[in-house]
Specification:
Blueprint lengths: L7 H9 L5 E3 L15 E7 L6 E7 L7 E2 L1 E3 L7 H6 L10 E3 L10 E2 L9 H17 L10 H12 L3 E5 L4 H5 L4 H15 L5 E6 L7 E2 L2 E2 L21 E2 H11 L3 H8 L10 E2 L1 H10 L12 H8 L6 H9 L4 E2 L15 H11 L3 E3 L4 E3 L3 H11 L5 H18 L3 H14 L1
Parallel strand pairs: 8-9
Antiparallel strand pairs: 1-3, 2-3, 4-7, 5-6, 10-11, 12-13, 14-16, 15-16
Helix pairs in contact: 10-13, 14-15
Length: 421
Amino acid sequence: MDFGSADGESRESAIDEPVRMPYNLSENISVSPCRTGRSGIRRIFKGKRSPNSYFMERCYFMPAYQLLPACKDYIWGGQKLKTGFGIQSELNPLSEAWVLSCHPDGPSVLADGPFAGLTLTEYLEKVVIAEIRQAYGELFSEQETNLTAALEQIYAATERQFIFLIDEWDCIMREEKEAEALQKHYLDFLRNLLKDQPYVALAYMTGILPVKKYGSHSALNMFAEYSMTNQYVFEEYTGFTENEVKELCERYHMDFEMTSSWYDGYRFKRFQHVYNPKSVVEAMRCRDFSNYWTSTETYEALKIYMDMDFDGLRGDIVRMLGGGRVKVNTRSFQNDMHTFKTRDDVLTLLIHLGYLAYDSDSREVYIPNGEIIEEFENAMSAGGWQEIMRILKASEKLLEDTLSCNEERVAEGLDRAHTEA
């Protein structure tokens, strides 16, 4: 689960101030980002802790390259891609132009420069191999272009292992929801790179979605997974704990009860109050309780899944907006954003996206807090839910009038409900 860029400030400081981590090269090696304006490993130098302890400083910089699109000449094509969008192709008719593609049926290639003609995958692999060669000299041949083979040769010569850190590993699953062939190609690459390889000391991947399933089996079954449906030993690190939020409220003079109403609600087995860290930080910084969710996930994305009215999904959402809970089976979810067969699959995706909280003891889902309620209301107001929204607002007004002992308005509200039923 990703609550947005909760670690945005730490990443920014890491860019402005180079981070140097000590590692014993006989065990593993890792790299850290810094700002230099050029690509590659800047320097490797001995650390002060021991003669075998090294620091490696890695600087990320991706130059801008123009891509040549993969073009298709299906029968429904024409000339508009050429005349209207400037796509250059000898195909006639020209029906599709995949201008940024890693799909095996039509990858884009670099148009110019020293890597002209390479696909993005080939380019990235070639650059990584070139950078590894700077650290490991002539341990593998100049002609070697396969990353797995290069790492195997390094390990055979040195018995040194590597640590792999992959952030947002599921980007392809989220950005290319329906590209099943591309997803499988990507998963095959990760499996070949990481599974049962002697050069792997540790592989650590972060993302919103768990590892993709095919049937009931994980596509990368060598990983121990920690997700929003089961955090195991990492519960307290999923978000801010209650004690942490109390300390923040005291420091920034913010009301704790209001903070809880807006951002609490994720309850796990040992930690019963876990808060959305991104929103808590924004509330403290801005000194204002508001909906900060929309800066990372828009209501349009939520609306897509709400409109999938599998097995009475809309009724379940209305029930949860009223404070209720809904039973859910999370095990059938295929861990992608395209393969939905039942309402449980959609509800499970909403758990991983953070829109719903999950009680693993009762196996129920619910809307966790006021911030998420606003997100659901925003999505419902966008179309197709107007009548439900009207009924919900009338119910809220009836409750307010009841609590304020306004007999006349309560009577009017009840009459209106009976008349319109």
